[in-house]
Amino acid sequence: MSSPNPAPRFPSSSPQRGLRGRWSDDRFTLEWMVIAVITCGMAVVAPKILLQPLWTPIHAVALGVVSNGIFQWSWFFSRGLLHFPLTGIARYSTFVRIVVLNAGVVALFVAMWTGSVPAALLATVLICGAGIHQGTVLAVEAHRYKENRYAPMVRYYAVAFFFFVVTCLVGGLLSYEMMASDVPAWIVSHADGIAVAHSVVGIGGWAGVTILGTVVTLGLSMLHARQDGRALGSARAALPLFVAAVLVAAIGGVAGLPLMVACGSALFLLAAIWGILTPLWCSFGLRKRSSHAVWPLLAGLVWTVLLVGVFTVESAVAADVSSLRNVVIDQLGVFLAAGIGQIFVASLEYLVPVAIGGGPTVQRVGDVAVSFLWPVRLSLRNAALAVLVLGGNDARTFLLVIVVVSYALDLGLVGCAAIRQLRAKKAKLEAKTIAKARKMTKMGSGEETTEGSDD
Ligand code: HEM
Question: pTM surpassing 0.70?
């Protein structure tokens, strides 16, 4: 077992796993990012030719990009924080889980496009199976290493996986309600409330809890700041508040009580400000060597706080859950693009070079590529989002195109950085192997000469 308080050290692709390694699993997320950019772009400019024009882009982002990313990165972080070994089934299970998850997501898209209830149920089972497995492994490891001061952060991931399974089961119920011919009356009459609960648990409990648990350590790493014991302590204390907040809001949704949704949302916001963001803010601005990714991360966090605040007020004044569902659908795009999307891209821009690894010189190749013109990309996206939110309806399509293009650029640069860094890493490994082989040959011929002289 590891020492109780090791520093977080994020593992890069190990030479044993070669250049495939974890990077090949990460490609699923990058491929889903391409699909998400295409489907979001189509939803903006040509919604008529997109099947399920609302559901498809939402789930290309929520299930394709966000969920793949969380499966992959929560595993990466948990290993980096707890240093648990990849032995036995844990050695291979990451890849198997990611494949099962993606088989389920693809089956779900086919189900939703063709209206097949059995395919939707199969998809839900596969997706939940992958979630239950990873959540259980992380909960067990967090318990096994409970003396480690980072164990509470891994507990964040275990809790998030619990919410993932809940939201997917509720999503399965919604798809049954949408597509089956003989649906019980109580499901139909509660459909709007169930949809609100699905969104709240998916966005708050799954994406939200994961992000908040991650920014405690990731934010400080990006800032090159010391891992502050108080930040970890308050994050640990805030976790039960997040669980309570998501449950209150979800139950409020199903029960048809928007005010209860508002209470859950307000509790979530206060817990996030008190438990996570204030300690992070205290470390902000102190370091000179911070990564550029701090800025999109900060932008994403500020937008998230503002938009959750607005959602809380809107829930409190909503007449019923049906109008609240419309609020969710109306604001979801901006929430994903301004909040979760920017936090996600910031994490990728910081972590992909770290994850590919290869030593400081090789890592710099990735860092340089990924930070190309970052202030321009960041300001353009945030200016477009701000104008959009402040009522730029006349130029809505134009502004949305700017946002989608800025994400496409981010994505292209992450891919380009990864390819360049992998090449540099490969070249370095080959150079090392050649040097080693030369050394061995020299030693061999040296021995022969010695033997010969003995003769
Ligand atoms: C097995 C997994 C899932 C299934 C079967 C599923 C299914 C559904 C269905 C059927 C709807 C209603 C669409 C409509 O009424 O037009 C929906 C909406 C939605 N889903 Fe999912 N979903 C799943 C996972 C997720 C996850 C993981 C998230 C979030 C991270 C998510 C976020 C949303 C959101 C935000 C909406 C819009 C809410 C609304 O229609 O009012 N879903 N989903």
Answer: yes
